[in-house]
Design brief:
about 250 residues; single chain
């Protein structure tokens, strides 16, 4: 009999609320209150997230974000600055000791990203894991992923690019010098792709979510049961949103 995990479809939220929900699920799972959870979500308004160890002031043009109505937030996971707009973001929260999750960080990235690779296959996109934490198709990046381990629990989340606007992304990031910026933009256009680019048609968020669900079920041999946040998770998410992820103290931490 297949193990049953929880599937959360939490829709589109602000950057701080998205990070708060992931953190609330991590806390709940670490206490044994909820099963392993896979969550699919989007960002409204669009947002820039920075890695835990980055400096907001050094990485992000905060004034441009405010002027253009773009959110910004510090993640609990590492990695670089990411512009979140036309994409599906997933998270998986699961115990470090779960037999499906390798102890090695790199191996666990490969295992979890394997679910996305299978999901892409359902969309007729041949993709592969590219260490340390990317997924590529036709030699171009279509998914970036980040992970943290806290309270004996793994939180991994990542992006699946439905469409991508490289010029807009770089208008929100701080790049020293126009020549360097132009080169980075041109390089990014050569290195990054999206489902819409690969398939040559518009792609709906719901289509991606449906196929990624199949990918997770197949990779981990589980059944994902659609559920909802518990009252404790909702309360914790509100707390983390108000007191951490939307605060200047948290976002300017480094």
């Amino acid at each position: 009999m297949k193990e049953k995990w929880r599937l959360l479809l939490t829709g589109f939220n602000t950057a701080s609320m998205n990070m708060a929900i992931d953190n609330a699920i991590l806390i709940a799972h670490s206490k044994g209150k909820v099963p392993p959870t896979v969550r699919f979500y989007g960002w409204k308004p669009p947002a820039v997230s920075i890695g835990y160890f980055q400096s907001l002031q050094e990485e992000v043009d905060v004034e441009s974000c405010r002027r253009l109505g773009v959110d910004y937030v510090r993640r609990v996971t590492g990695g670089g600055a990411v512009f979140h707009d036309k994409e599906l973001t997933y998270s998986i929260i699961i115990s470090e000791s779960h037999p499906m999750i390798p102890r090695s960080i790199l191996d666990s990235y490969q295992r979890i990203c394997g679910a996305l690779v299978r999901g892409f296959r359902y969309m007729n996109v041949e993709a592969s894991f590219a260490p340390v934490n990317d997924i590529i198709t036709n030699g171009k990046k279509i998914s970036g992923n980040a992970q943290t381990r806290r309270y004996n629990t793994v939180l991994q989340h990542g992006t699946i690019l439905i469409d991508v606007d490289v010029d807009r992304m770089f208008s929100l990031l701080k790049i020293p010098g126009e020549k360097i910026k132009d080169k980075l933009i041109n390089d990014a256009k050569q290195r990054v792709t999206s489902l819409s680019d690969v398939l040559g048609r518009p792609v709906l968020f719901e289509e991606v979510a449906s196929n990624m669900k199949k990918g997770f079920e197949e990779e981990f041999n589980v059944e994902l049961i659609k559920g909802s946040l518990t009252d404790d998770e909702i309360n914790d998410a509100r707390f983390f949103h108000e007191h951490y992820f939307s605060s200047d103290e948290w976002n300017n931490k480094r």
